[in-house]
UniProtKB/TrEMBL annotation:
Residues 25-34 have a biased composition (Polar residues). GO terms for cellular component: anaphase-promoting complex. Gene3D superfamilies: Galactose-binding domain-like. GO terms for biological process: anaphase-promoting complex-dependent catabolic process; cell division; protein K11-linked ubiquitination. The lineage of its organism: Eukaryota, Metazoa, Ecdysozoa, Nematoda, Chromadorea. Residues 25-44 are annotated as: Disordered. InterPro entries: APC10/Doc1 (IPR016901), APC_su10/DOC_dom (IPR004939), Galactose-bd-like_sf (IPR008979). Pfam families: ANAPC10 (PF03256). Residues 39-224 form the DOC domain. Keywords: Cell cycle, Cell division, Mitosis, Ubl conjugation pathway. Belongs to the APC10 family. This is Anaphase-promoting complex subunit 10.
């Protein structure tokens, strides 16, 4: 899946172009994103520290490395690698006017329960995000879920619950977009020190069930007389039936 990026850097800026190459790279489990000097520890607040915000962390897993990341902008040396690094002493720093965005594209359908962000007003002050918008969908042009979040001088992990508002089950999607709408103290650029997409350890849908059972029995009870029902029907098809991905 190709990745795209919007940038305010000039083509003649060699350092900026080197950063762009880093920004558009795929984040995979084999990528060297871990700082050898950083050890994941619940006591130091590194990238696994999000587990402390959950009652039963063993029921969830980090699927961040399954996504392809694109940033709306970044300062040289403060790109994807720093955003996904284990150490909170490295971070993503933007380099353009608001809004700032992170796009995450998945090659298959994933269950998204939480988005975890590590931000620190004490260290970053006007660079600390204050107003956030999170969107989920099947692609950039097919968004079905939107959530807004206000952060008042946060210090540490911010947990964004992205479950379905009616069923409280994780939302199933292939695309996630985070938009920073405003910073504290009217700041222009922002710093985000960690970004983690969290999914249940056990998926909602089993591909083998779809092979052996075919259409879900629940489909027969869904009427398509109005717009809302048609949307429910479409989402059920997309989640459960149309593909084995």
């Amino acid at each position: 899946m190709p990745t795209l990026i919007e940038s305010v850097f000039d083509d003649e800026d060699d350092d900026a172009m080197e950063t762009l190459n880093l920004v558009t790279r795929q984040n995979s489990p084999s990528s060297p994103l871990h700082d050898s000097s950083a050890k994941e520890s619940d006591e130091t607040g590194f990238a696994s520290g999000w587990k402390r915000t959950l009652v039963n962390p063993e029921k969830y897993r980090d699927i961040t490395s399954d996504g392809f990341f694109t940033l709306s902008s970044c300062s040289p040396g403060f790109g994807v690698h720093e955003l996904l690094n284990d150490s909170h002493d490295k971070w993503w720093k933007t380099n353009q006017n608001l809004p700032h965005q992170i796009w995450v594209e998945f090659q298959k359908k994933v269950d998204v329960k939480y988005l975890m962000l590590y931000v620190d007003y004490k260290q970053d002050e006007s660079f600390c995000p204050a107003e956030l918008k999170i969107e989920l969908g099947w692609s950039r042009n097919d968004i079905f879920y939107t959530k807004h979040k206000s952060c008042i001088k946060p210090q540490g992990w911010v947990r964004l619950d992205l479950a379905n508002r009616e069923t409280r089950r994780p939302n199933r999607c292939m695309f996630l977009m985070l938009t920073v709408l405003a910073n504290h103290e009217g700041g222009r650029d922002c710093n985000i020190r960690h970004f983690r997409v969290i999914s249940p350890s056990k998926p909602q849908y089993d591909p083998l069930d779809r092979i052996t059972l075919g259409l879900l029995p629940s489909l027969r009870f869904i009427k398509i007389r109005d717009a809302d029902s048609r949307e429910d029907f479409r989402n059920t098809i997309m989640n459960s039936v149309t593909s084995l991905r």
